[in-house]
Design brief:
alpha/beta; Rossmann fold; 5-stranded parallel sheet; globular
Length: 141
C-alpha cells in the first residue's frame, strides 16, 4: 500500500502481504503499517513479480488458499529462484492440518501464522524472521 518515496517509511523493513481476501489484507496491513513498509499482492503471480522487483520485500506473509496459484506454488517458485530464495515466507492460514504444515515447510516456508490473526504472535514472528534473515545475510561464507 505504500509506494517508494523519501519518507522515513522507505528505510523500514518491507513486508509483502499476499492474500486474495480484502478483509485479511486490511487486518495484516493495519497491524504492520506502523512498523514496516507494507506491500500488497492479491494473487500469486503479482507476489512473485514484487519479490523479483528492484525493491524486493524482506519478508512475505503468504496466504495458502488462493485462486490460480496457491501459496505452496508461490513459495516453491520463490525458493527455486536465486534472487528470492533468501526472503522468509510465513504462511498465513486457517488450516491446522499437520500434513499441510509439513507440505509448507517442504516447499520452503519459514513459519506459519494461523488465522484468526493474533496481533502479538504476528508481530513477534515477523520481527524474529526479519532478524534471522538479517543475521544470515551478514554471516561469513
Amino acid at each position: 500500500m505504500d509506494s517508494p518515496s523519501s519518507d522515513p517509511a522507505s528505510s523500514r523493513s518491507s513486508v509483502l502481504i499476499v492474500d486474495d481476501e480484502p478483509t485479511n489484507i486490511n487486518i495484516l496491513y493495519s497491524l504492520l503499517k506502523e512498523d514496516y513498509r507494507t506491500l500488497v499482492a492479491t494473487n500469486g503471480k503479482r507476489a512473485v513479480e514484487l519479490a523479483r522487483s528492484s525493491r524486493p520485500p524482506q519478508l512475505i506473509l503468504l496466504d495458502i488458499m488462493m485462486p490460480e496459484m496457491d501459496g505452496y506454488e508461490v513459495c516453491k517458485l520463490l525458493k527455486e529462484d536465486p534472487l528470492t530464495r533468501h526472503i522468509p515466507v510465513l504462511f498465513t492460514t486457517a488450516q491446522n492440518d499437520p500434513q499441510e504444515m509439513a507440505r509448507g515447510f517442504e516447499v520452503g516456508a519459514a513459519d506459519y501464522i494461523h488465522k484468526p490473526i493474533c496481533p502479538s504472535i504476528l508481530k513477534a514472528r515477523v520481527n524474529t524472521h526479519l532478524l534471522l534473515a538479517r543475521l544470515l545475510q551478514h554471516q561469513p561464507g
